[in-house]
Structure formats: C-alpha cells, structure tokens
Amino acid sequence: AKEYNNSIHSINITLVNVSREDNNFLLTCTANNIVGSAKASVHLIVHFPPSIVKLKEPERRHDTCIEFTVQGSPHPSLRWFHHNEEISHSEYIRTDMDVYHDDIEGCLLFKNPTHYNNGNYTLEATNYLGMVTRTVYGHFLEVPLP
C-alpha cells in the first residue's frame, strides 16, 4: 500500500501462476471507508503464444472447407501455404473466419477445387510471442487419365 499527498491510497496486487485459461477473467476491487464504498472491475488480459487446436481435412459443403481453430492472445495473424508458396486469396480460394476472445475459427474455402488443388496445406499462426504451423493434406479430385 502507498499513500500519495496524504489523500490518495494505492494498493498493487501481483498475480502469480496466471495461465491462458485466466484470460478475460473479471477482477473486481472494492474499497470501503466510513463514508461508503466504491467498486471497479477490469478484465484480466493474459498474452500467450498461438496454438492450432484444430485443422481438419477438406470437407465438401456448399464450398469445400479446411476447418481450423487457432488460439492466441493477442490474436495471431494467419497465413496459408500450398506447395510452400503463400496462398493469395481469390474468388476460388479464400478464408472465412470468426474472431472470439481467444479463438479464431473458420475455413479455408475452395470453390470447385480440382486435382491442381491437391497437396499439403500449411496454416501459420503468428503473434509477438511466437509462431506455430500445422499441415493437412487436401485431396480434391483424381488426376484425369491422359
């Protein structure tokens, strides 16, 4: 505890053993004295490196989807690679995703994929605490006979 100018008191709290599960926890401070009480709350922000918790093989839906879930705080930036080259989004391949508190969930979507799209797809997630990659094989169509 610290007192400033004989009128303002300050107390610092140190949290130990904080983990990613504690991210967004609501911390509430209550102060009481003879004239009343006051309360203030703040959400705890815990930063942690990215992790890819789900990366599924392509699934045919309206468009074909490689479904993924990534966690990280701050939210990681995502990049996709095919044949070791970064994928440029187009009308035929694009990412559709939703961002939540700690998660990014979505799909790498393919519109009418062919045998040219077969191969390994690598998802890279990066924030200032680290980088992680994970690869899944996508098989869309057999190579046509000559």
TrEMBL record:
Tell me any Pfam family this protein matches.
I-set
The record's keywords, sorted A to Z, are: Disulfide bond, Signal
SUPFAM superfamilies, A to Z: Immunoglobulin
Q: Where is the Immunoglobulin I-set domain?
A: 66-135
Q: Which domain of life is it from?
A: Eukaryota
InterPro entries listed in its UniProt record: Cell_Adh-Cytoskel_Orgn, Ig-like_dom_sf, Ig-like_fold, Ig_I-set, NTRK
| Gene3D superfamilies to which the protein is assigned, alphabetical | Immunoglobulins (2.60.40.10)
* Name of this chain's protein: Immunoglobulin I-set domain-containing protein
- Which species is this record about? Characodon lateralis
Lineage of the organism: Eukaryota, Metazoa, Chordata, Craniata, Vertebrata
